[in-house]
Write a sequence for this structure.
C-alpha cells in the first residue's frame, strides 16, 4: 500500500509542473494549432511509438533470449540446471493467462474512465476552478480524495462485494480525472503525442516483463523504491522552493521529470512480473484481484504520461 501512496503523491506533485507552465502564460485557454501542425505532431508521435516499440522488441531479444541447456548438464554462465531452465521458461498456466488478461483489461478500463471523467470535469468548468486554487490546497484536497478512494478500493474483496468494489474503483478514477482535468487546456496534438509515447513505453516494457524468465526482475523492487523516494523529495522541493531559486528549481524539476521517467519505467517491469508471480503463487483464483493488481500499472502509466507531457510542452516553449 505504501508504494502505491508514494506513486500517487509523486504523480500529484509532478502534475503541478504542467499546471505551473500553464499559469505562466497570459491566458488560460490555449490557442489551437493549425490543422497541418497537429497532423505533423501526430505523425511524429506515431514515429516515436514505432521507435519505442522497436526498442522494446530489441530489448526483449537481448534480455530474454532462451536459455540453451543440454539435459543433465549445467549452464556455467547462468549457473542453471536443465530443470531450472525449463521451469524459468515454461509457458503460462491458464490461471496466469486469465489473470493477466483481466488485469490489463481493468488497467485499460481505468485509463478510459479517468480520461472520460477528466474531459467531463474540464467541460463543466472544474479545470478553471482548479487552476485558480492555491497549489497546496489543490495537492491536499486531491491527495485526501484519491488516497481515501484507493484505500477503500484495495480493502474491499472482489468476490464478496463486487458492486461496492467497482463503485469505489469508479470513484477513485473520478478523483484522478478531476485532478488531471486541467491537462485538457494543453494542445490536443501534444496530449495525443504524449499518450502515444506512453503507450509505447508501457507496452514494450510490459512485453519484456511477460516474456522474461520467472521473477527475473523482482529484485529491482528495493532500488526502485529508493529511487521513488528520491523523485518524491525532488518533486516536493520543486513545488515548495521559491521561484527565485532558479538553478535549484531547474535541477529538482529535471530530477522529478527525467529521474521519475526512469523510475516509473522500471516500476512497469517490476509490477508486470509481480502480477505474474502473484497469480502463480495464489492457491485459489479467488485470492486474485485484477483491480488491485491493475492499480500499480495504472499509476505507473499516469506518472509516465504526465512527465512526457511536461517534457514535450517544455521543449515546445523553448
Amino acid at each position: 500500500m505504501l508504494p502505491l501512496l508514494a506513486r500517487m503523491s509523486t504523480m500529484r506533485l509532478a502534475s503541478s509542473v504542467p499546471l505551473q507552465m500553464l499559469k505562466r502564460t497570459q491566458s488560460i485557454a490555449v490557442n489551437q494549432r493549425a490543422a497541418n501542425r497537429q497532423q505533423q505532431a501526430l505523425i511524429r508521435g506515431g514515429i516515436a511509438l514505432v521507435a519505442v516499440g522497436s526498442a522494446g522488441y530489441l530489448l526483449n531479444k537481448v534480455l530474454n533470449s532462451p536459455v540453451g541447456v543440454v539435459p543433465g548438464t549445467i549452464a556455467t554462465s547462468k549457473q542453471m540446471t536443465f530443470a531450472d531452465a525449463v521451469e524459468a521458461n515454461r509457458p503460462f498456466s491458464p490461471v496466469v493467462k486469465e489473470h493477466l488478461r483481466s488485469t490489463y483489461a481493468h488497467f485499460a478500463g481505468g485509463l478510459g474512465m479517468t480520461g472520460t471523467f477528466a474531459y467531463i470535469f474540464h467541460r463543466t468548468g472544474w479545470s478553471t476552478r482548479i487552476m485558480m486554487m492555491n497549489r497546496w490546497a489543490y495537492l491536499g484536497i486531491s491527495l485526501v480524495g484519491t488516497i481515501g478512494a484507493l484505500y477503500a478500493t484495495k480493502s474491499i474483496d472482489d468476490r464478496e462485494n463486487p458492486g461496492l468494489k467497482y463503485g469505489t474503483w469508479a470513484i477513485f478514477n473520478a478523483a484522478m480525472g478531476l485532478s488531471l482535468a486541467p491537462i485538457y487546456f494543453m494542445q490536443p496534438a501534444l496530449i495525443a503525442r504524449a499518450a502515444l509515447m506512453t503507450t509505447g513505453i508501457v507496452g514494450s516494457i510490459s512485453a519484456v516483463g511477460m516474456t522474461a524468465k520467472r521473477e527475473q526482475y523482482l529484485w529491482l523492487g528495493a532500488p526502485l523504491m529508493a529511487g521513488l523516494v528520491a523523485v518524491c523529495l525532488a518533486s516536493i522541493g520543486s513545488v515548495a522552493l521559491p521561484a527565485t531559486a532558479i538553478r535549484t528549481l531547474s535541477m529538482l524539476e529535471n530530477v522529478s521529470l527525467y529521474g521519475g521517467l526512469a523510475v516509473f519505467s522500471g516500476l512497469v517491469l517490476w509490477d508486470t512480473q509481480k502480477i505474474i508471480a502473484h497469480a502463480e503463487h495464489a492457491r485459489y483464483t479467488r485470492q486474485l484481484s485484477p483491480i488491485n493488481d491493475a492499480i500499480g500499472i495504472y499509476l505507473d502509466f499516469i506518472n509516465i504520461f504526465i512527465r512526457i507531457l511536461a517534457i514535450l510542452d517544455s521543449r515546445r516553449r523553448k
Notes: Residues 3 and 225 are 7 Å apart (CA to CA).
